[in-house]
Amino acid sequence: MKTRPLFAASLLMAALNGAGAQGGGGSAAPSGGAAATSLPGIPRIAFDKYTLPNGLQVILVEDKRLPLVAVNVWYHVGPANEAPGLTGFAHLFEHMMFAGSKHLPRGLADRLMEGAGASDSNGSTDYDRTNYYDTVPSNQLELALWVHADRMGYLPDVLDQKSLANQQDVVRNERRDTVENEPYGIVEEALNHALFPQDHPYRASVIGSHADIQNAKLADVRDFFTRYYGPNNASIVIAGDIDKVKTRALVAKYFGSLRRGPAVVRPAVTTPPITSERRLVVPDRVELPRVYMAWLTPPAYQAGDAELAVAAQILAGGKSSRLYKSLVYGRQIAQDVDANQDARALASTFLIEVTARAGHTPAELEAAIDAELAALRDHGPSEQEVARARNQIETAIVSSLEKLGGDGLADQLNHYNQFTGDPGYLAQDVATLRRITAADVQRAARTWLQQKSRVVVAGVPGIPDLPPDPPAPKPPKARSGQGAGGINEAEAWRAQMPKAGPAPRLNLPQGEAFKLPNGLTVIHHYNPALPLVSAELVVRSGSDANPPALPGLAGFTAQLLLEGTATRSAPQIADEIAQLGAFIDADSSTGASSVALLSLSANFGAALAVLADVVQHPAFPTAEVERQRASRLGELMQQRDDPELIAALAAAGALYGPRHPYGYGQLGTEPAIRAVTRNDLHGFWRRHYVPGNAALVVSGDISRADLAALAEARFASWQSAPVPPLVPGTPATTKARVVLVDQPGAGQTALRLTTLAAERKTPHYPALEVMNAAFGGLFTSRINQNLREDKGYTYGVYSGFRYDRTPGPFIIAGSVRANVTGASVAELLKEAQAMVDKPLDAQELAGARNAELLSLPNRFETNSDIGASLAETFIYDLPLDYYTELPARLAAVTAADVQAAARRYLDPAKLVVVAVGERKKIAAQLDKLKLGPVEARDSEGQLRP
């Protein structure tokens, strides 16, 4: 299940509109080509669209920016097509598509794809569609097509009860993880139930209920596949470094002989309007109340949809929005605000959600929201507000095209194709956006956002009333003939894995660096692929520079940079950036603080002027310090609602101790937030935000000469000052082996196993990355296959290194069912010991090494990705050619190197086990493992007195 993007959901996302297949009985001529119209500032996407005789729609896009190809398959089916009593079935089936097919036994496809360097490999289910996608090196396109075709054509041949039972366990763990243990997850599900009647296909959440997931039968799975997973109910986008003629031949080879499925009848559903207000109060394990308001609105791409997307941006699209200025900034009764026009095929929903600041009530929030809605309906927005919203939505649309795969270019074309029948709808989409006026937005608000036609749900602190979570029954005995219900004729050649083409040359961005006279480093990468520029001003001081008594100071300082300068107030900064259609953010990590900017290239100069001002001339107004203090205290309360964040905090505290700056989260602690003064913030900025400690990293559609002129104009007057030394201190790791944080009523346990490991400049970095890929970094890693795929204990478990200037942590993390907490820890420790005891065999080594090596280009798809990698070279004092040299270093990693890395950094005896869950359910399980001393910590990760 995948969430929708925040901005312009109706403009970016597509839903089923019943468009028929192009062409007739034979292969059709291309129905596409370059987009029919073009607009200034909007890229033209050249594509070919044709239809195979079996009905599969094929869309090809040639894009040579990187040696990558995205393969994106959409099946036009989702919960909108589910049978009564089987809520969540479309999503469960999505999982089944990864369980193996006739020529690819369970798990093999994932291993082959990861070993080939695939990235952005996953699937997702939305109400009107299910998609499957991979990004692969261009020489592995045939492998990706082989895998997707085998799933489309030969899944029923091997479907069995064991696979179904396993995925039922996994999906129910996913429900616990993403709905029941997620703050406000139960509240949002109740909202959905209130919007739609009992028999409406949108009423249930996409993931469904425990009972319905468990009630699915193997016969239901077979029937669903036969009914909806034929090629005539699918479309495939192949975008990237391709030869179109050769790609057409490959598509015909792998998909052409698959049989057409039965004709799919599109859902004929009438969504009854809401004629009187509906209200609910839903308790959940949260500290801050939240108000949701939702309306039924026009289906995607129908009149009013785009206007409501603009209205959502005006109401709650960042700091320049009305609800933010009124409720968060002005009255300070809200912690955060959000609004979204969630466009779907049968009916869309317009949603406003506002979280209260501590001490304020849902009634206060509702009255304040109502006042802003009334003003929008009665007086409309200003033309300036509409232009501001349009500009930011347009930038978000263009930036969504930076990635080839995932939710990027290929997915957008499939969205447009399903909605409109035209993959090249981008220009028309943006043209519609640009035509929207203030009167249009006011008319849409008056028509659709009336009080009588809404649902209002208040999520409040309390004990959630969770739906039944029945135990999984023993699976029925397998019947003879299971797995023999094939649809397509056997073709022996399909059992042969295709050979890779010639390996593409890895030309990874290196960047060029120069310095201004004041010591500011400027790093530039020219990327003209799209009219976008990403910039990041980074300083080499993060939480490692926090004084012991003030954890969180670096993050607090970064947050204040955007809250006023000598010449711009906080609202002026927000309005100016939004008017330019740009996005700006400030943040802090363990080793750096930064201000990041994304802009259309035409507006970059003006946007950079704002970034330069906030970095060089922050005013730290007393009123803004107090506003942000209250905001950070609210964030701290929200952090305490999330078990996985609590586990991360407790792990940091246990690993580093209370005197080390890494022993806390970026927010710090409540006493520290309350104690920070304006002088502390100004002092941190004065010491650390100096040119010699900073770099301006820019990637995008701007030449070096133009950047040099802008950098000189905006930063030459920044006065140089001594660079501060950074001495974070010595970690004081707890003597305990088990750390418990009690969460009464939790159905899951958030686990972290952690130990101090390596610094970023370690020469062991390539071996560590390969070791981690095999152990817990990949979907097919040892721990994920064990706990998720084999035992069904978890929705997923992973591992990874955080590399700092000093040794950072190695982390194993995941949430497991409460009743298998002890068993899960035992398995994780067993897997760690196995990595130490025995070297990887040749096949596993090759798979893990190639997964790291061949997927490297995917780390440089977007300008922000490129900028982050170049910034990393500055932060950790790595050479600019670090990434161009990394492929050879990864290729040289041996099994002995991996085992040596495991012995040095993955000693099970040194792993501290952190468990956040209901103590009375999990303590005894952990005691049986006899790991050693146990300590209790609070929800901020600190030792309890």
Automatic annotation (TrEMBL):
Q: Is Magnesium there in the keyword field?
A: no
Q: Where is the signal peptide?
A: 1-21
Which UniProt key words apply to this protein? Signal
Residue stretches of biased makeup (Pro residues): 464-475
Record has Transit peptide as a keyword: no
Location of the region described as Disordered in the Swiss-Prot/TrEMBL record: 462-485
What SUPFAM superfamilies does the database record attribute to this sequence?
A: LuxS/MPP-like metallohydrolase (SSF63411)
The residue ranges of the Peptidase M16 N-terminal domain are: 58-197, 522-644
InterPro entries listed in its UniProt record: Metalloenz_LuxS/M16, MPP/UQCRC_Complex, Pept_M16_N, Peptidase_M16_C
Gene3D superfamilies in the cross-refs: Metalloenzyme, LuxS/M16 peptidase-like
Q: Where is the Peptidase M16 C-terminal domain?
A: 218-392, 676-851
This protein is called M16 family metallopeptidase
Q: Which organism is it from?
A: Massilia jejuensis
